[in-house]
Amino acid sequence: MDRTVEVWSGGVNTWECDEMGHLNVRFWVAKAMESLAGLTRLMGMPDAFARSGGATLVIRDLHMRFLREARAGACLWASGGVVALGETDADLLLVLRHADGTPAATFRLRAGHATASDLRPFPWPQRIRTACAALMTEVPDFAAPRSINLSPVTESRANLAFAERTGMTRIGLGTVRADELDVFGRMRPEMFIGRVSDGVA
Q: pLDDT of 168-200, one tens digit each?
Protein backbone atom coordinates (compact mmCIF):
# COMPACT_ATOMS: atom_id res chain seq x y z
CA MET A 1 0.00 0.00 0.00
CA ASP A 2 1.27 3.49 -0.87
CA ARG A 3 1.45 5.52 2.30
CA THR A 4 3.96 8.07 1.09
CA VAL A 5 3.26 11.51 2.48
CA GLU A 6 4.29 14.97 1.37
CA VAL A 7 7.65 15.86 2.91
CA TRP A 8 8.80 18.84 0.82
CA SER A 9 7.57 21.36 -1.74
CA GLY A 10 9.30 24.12 -3.66
CA GLY A 11 10.39 25.11 -7.11
CA VAL A 12 13.20 25.34 -9.64
CA ASN A 13 15.36 28.45 -9.71
CA THR A 14 17.10 29.65 -12.86
CA TRP A 15 20.50 29.41 -11.15
CA GLU A 16 19.86 25.72 -10.44
CA CYS A 17 19.63 24.88 -14.15
CA ASP A 18 22.42 23.71 -16.43
CA GLU A 19 23.46 24.93 -19.85
CA MET A 20 20.53 23.03 -21.41
CA GLY A 21 18.01 24.78 -19.18
CA HIS A 22 17.26 21.69 -17.08
CA LEU A 23 17.46 21.35 -13.31
CA ASN A 24 21.03 20.19 -12.66
CA VAL A 25 21.57 16.84 -10.97
CA ARG A 26 23.20 18.45 -7.90
CA PHE A 27 20.00 20.37 -7.20
CA TRP A 28 17.80 17.30 -7.73
CA VAL A 29 19.89 15.71 -4.98
CA ALA A 30 19.75 18.85 -2.81
CA LYS A 31 15.95 18.79 -2.99
CA ALA A 32 15.97 15.06 -2.20
CA MET A 33 18.11 15.72 0.89
CA GLU A 34 15.65 18.39 2.04
CA SER A 35 12.90 15.84 1.46
CA LEU A 36 14.83 13.29 3.53
CA ALA A 37 14.96 15.77 6.41
CA GLY A 38 11.19 16.15 6.12
CA LEU A 39 10.75 12.37 6.19
CA THR A 40 12.99 11.94 9.24
CA ARG A 41 10.84 14.46 11.12
CA LEU A 42 7.81 12.25 10.46
CA MET A 43 9.85 9.23 11.57
CA GLY A 44 10.37 10.91 14.95
CA MET A 45 13.90 12.22 14.33
CA PRO A 46 13.47 16.02 14.04
CA ASP A 47 17.15 16.63 14.91
CA ALA A 48 18.64 13.92 12.69
CA PHE A 49 20.68 16.44 10.70
CA ALA A 50 21.35 18.94 13.47
CA ARG A 51 24.55 19.14 15.48
CA SER A 52 22.46 18.91 18.66
CA GLY A 53 20.87 15.59 17.65
CA GLY A 54 22.02 12.45 19.41
CA ALA A 55 21.22 10.23 16.43
CA THR A 56 21.47 10.69 12.69
CA LEU A 57 21.04 8.83 9.42
CA VAL A 58 24.07 7.75 7.43
CA ILE A 59 23.34 7.16 3.76
CA ARG A 60 24.92 3.85 2.77
CA ASP A 61 23.48 3.51 -0.74
CA LEU A 62 21.58 5.93 -2.96
CA HIS A 63 19.77 4.93 -6.15
CA MET A 64 18.55 7.84 -8.28
CA ARG A 65 16.24 7.58 -11.23
CA PHE A 66 15.42 10.65 -13.31
CA LEU A 67 12.13 10.43 -15.16
CA ARG A 68 11.10 13.88 -16.37
CA GLU A 69 13.11 17.08 -16.67
CA ALA A 70 12.28 20.25 -14.73
CA ARG A 71 12.98 23.76 -15.99
CA ALA A 72 13.24 27.14 -14.28
CA GLY A 73 9.96 28.14 -12.71
CA ALA A 74 8.64 24.58 -12.38
CA CYS A 75 6.83 23.69 -9.16
CA LEU A 76 7.95 20.47 -7.49
CA TRP A 77 6.91 18.54 -4.40
CA ALA A 78 8.11 15.34 -2.80
CA SER A 79 6.52 12.43 -1.01
CA GLY A 80 8.38 9.93 1.13
CA GLY A 81 7.92 6.63 2.87
CA VAL A 82 9.61 3.66 4.50
CA VAL A 83 10.03 0.54 2.35
CA ALA A 84 11.66 -1.61 5.04
CA LEU A 85 13.03 -1.18 8.55
CA GLY A 86 15.83 -3.40 9.83
CA GLU A 87 17.52 -3.56 13.21
CA THR A 88 19.71 -0.50 12.59
CA ASP A 89 18.99 0.46 8.99
CA ALA A 90 16.11 1.46 6.74
CA ASP A 91 15.17 1.36 3.07
CA LEU A 92 13.55 4.72 2.29
CA LEU A 93 11.80 6.07 -0.79
CA LEU A 94 11.51 9.68 -1.94
CA VAL A 95 9.56 10.68 -5.06
CA LEU A 96 9.94 14.19 -6.46
CA ARG A 97 6.92 15.15 -8.53
CA HIS A 98 5.77 17.93 -10.81
CA ALA A 99 2.83 20.07 -9.66
CA ASP A 100 0.33 17.76 -11.39
CA GLY A 101 1.71 14.72 -9.53
CA THR A 102 3.72 13.32 -12.43
CA PRO A 103 6.86 11.60 -11.06
CA ALA A 104 9.99 13.56 -11.99
CA ALA A 105 12.71 11.68 -10.04
CA THR A 106 12.96 8.92 -7.47
CA PHE A 107 15.51 8.30 -4.74
CA ARG A 108 15.92 4.97 -2.93
CA LEU A 109 18.14 5.27 0.14
CA ARG A 110 19.58 2.61 2.38
CA ALA A 111 20.33 4.56 5.53
CA GLY A 112 21.83 3.53 8.84
CA HIS A 113 20.64 4.73 12.24
CA ALA A 114 23.79 5.89 14.05
CA THR A 115 25.13 8.05 16.83
CA ALA A 116 25.80 11.58 15.60
CA SER A 117 29.15 11.79 17.37
CA ASP A 118 30.94 8.71 16.03
CA LEU A 119 28.49 7.19 13.51
CA ARG A 120 28.15 4.00 15.55
CA PRO A 121 25.08 1.99 14.44
CA PHE A 122 22.46 1.30 17.09
CA PRO A 123 18.90 -0.13 17.06
CA TRP A 124 15.83 1.94 16.27
CA PRO A 125 13.86 2.83 19.42
CA GLN A 126 10.26 1.64 19.61
CA ARG A 127 8.86 5.17 19.17
CA ILE A 128 10.54 5.41 15.75
CA ARG A 129 9.39 1.90 14.80
CA THR A 130 5.84 2.93 15.66
CA ALA A 131 6.08 6.12 13.59
CA CYS A 132 7.57 4.21 10.64
CA ALA A 133 4.72 1.68 10.70
CA ALA A 134 2.40 4.47 9.51
CA LEU A 135 4.83 5.38 6.70
CA MET A 136 5.35 1.93 5.18
CA THR A 137 5.05 1.86 1.39
CA GLU A 138 5.91 -0.27 -1.61
CA VAL A 139 8.25 0.74 -4.40
CA PRO A 140 6.30 1.68 -7.54
CA ASP A 141 7.50 0.34 -10.88
CA PHE A 142 8.73 3.76 -11.97
CA ALA A 143 11.15 3.84 -9.00
CA ALA A 144 12.55 0.33 -9.50
CA PRO A 145 16.07 -0.10 -10.91
CA ARG A 146 16.24 -0.82 -14.64
CA SER A 147 19.66 -2.34 -15.19
CA ILE A 148 21.43 -2.64 -11.85
CA ASN A 149 21.14 -4.73 -8.72
CA LEU A 150 20.44 -2.84 -5.49
CA SER A 151 22.12 -5.42 -3.29
CA PRO A 152 24.43 -3.73 -0.76
CA VAL A 153 28.02 -3.24 -1.90
CA THR A 154 30.14 -5.45 0.34
CA GLU A 155 33.52 -4.18 -0.82
CA SER A 156 34.20 -0.86 -2.49
CA ARG A 157 36.84 -0.65 -5.21
CA ALA A 158 36.71 3.14 -5.22
CA ASN A 159 40.27 4.15 -4.46
CA LEU A 160 43.17 5.88 -6.18
CA ALA A 161 45.19 2.67 -6.68
CA PHE A 162 42.30 1.02 -8.54
CA ALA A 163 41.78 4.11 -10.70
CA GLU A 164 45.45 4.26 -11.66
CA ARG A 165 45.72 0.50 -12.26
CA THR A 166 42.73 0.49 -14.62
CA GLY A 167 43.74 3.65 -16.48
CA MET A 168 40.78 5.79 -15.50
CA THR A 169 40.81 9.40 -16.64
CA ARG A 170 40.58 12.17 -14.08
CA ILE A 171 37.51 14.29 -14.82
CA GLY A 172 37.93 16.90 -12.11
CA LEU A 173 40.36 18.31 -9.59
CA GLY A 174 39.70 20.61 -6.67
CA THR A 175 39.43 21.10 -2.93
CA VAL A 176 36.51 20.22 -0.69
CA ARG A 177 35.44 23.56 0.79
CA ALA A 178 33.89 24.16 4.20
CA ASP A 179 30.60 25.27 2.61
CA GLU A 180 30.32 21.84 0.96
CA LEU A 181 30.22 20.05 4.33
CA ASP A 182 27.27 19.19 6.56
CA VAL A 183 27.13 19.96 10.29
CA PHE A 184 29.07 16.76 11.02
CA GLY A 185 31.95 17.69 8.69
CA ARG A 186 31.01 15.25 5.91
CA MET A 187 30.71 16.23 2.26
CA ARG A 188 27.04 16.81 1.41
CA PRO A 189 25.64 14.35 -1.19
CA GLU A 190 24.56 17.11 -3.56
CA MET A 191 28.08 18.56 -3.55
CA PHE A 192 29.59 15.17 -4.33
CA ILE A 193 27.26 14.52 -7.27
CA GLY A 194 27.77 18.12 -8.37
CA ARG A 195 31.51 17.48 -8.69
CA VAL A 196 30.77 14.43 -10.84
CA SER A 197 28.34 16.46 -12.96
CA ASP A 198 30.90 19.24 -13.44
CA GLY A 199 33.45 16.70 -14.67
CA VAL A 200 31.22 14.94 -17.20
CA ALA A 201 32.00 17.44 -19.99
A: 998 999 999 999 999 989 999 999 999 999 998
CB 49 within 8 A of CB 40: yes
Question: Does the structure show a pLDDT above 60 at 1?
Answer: no
Which phi and psi (to 5°) does residue 117 adopt?
-75, -45
Question: What CA–CA distance (Å, rounded) separates 10 from 113?
Answer: 28
With the C-alpha atoms ordered 28, 29, 34, 36, is the resulting torsion angle positive or negative? positive
- Predicted TM-score of the model (pTM): 0.92
CATH class as words, domain 5-144 = alpha beta
Residue 132 and residue 78 in contact, taking contact as beta carbons nearer than 8 Å: no
Exposed (0-12), middle (13-18) or buried (19+): which is 123, by Cβ within 10 Å?
exposed
User: Helix, strand or coil for residue 96?
Assistant: strand
Q: How far is CA 156 from CA 153, 162, 169, in A?
A: 7, 10, 19
Exposure string for 80-94, b = 16+ CB within 10 A, e = fewer:
bbbbebeeebbbbbb
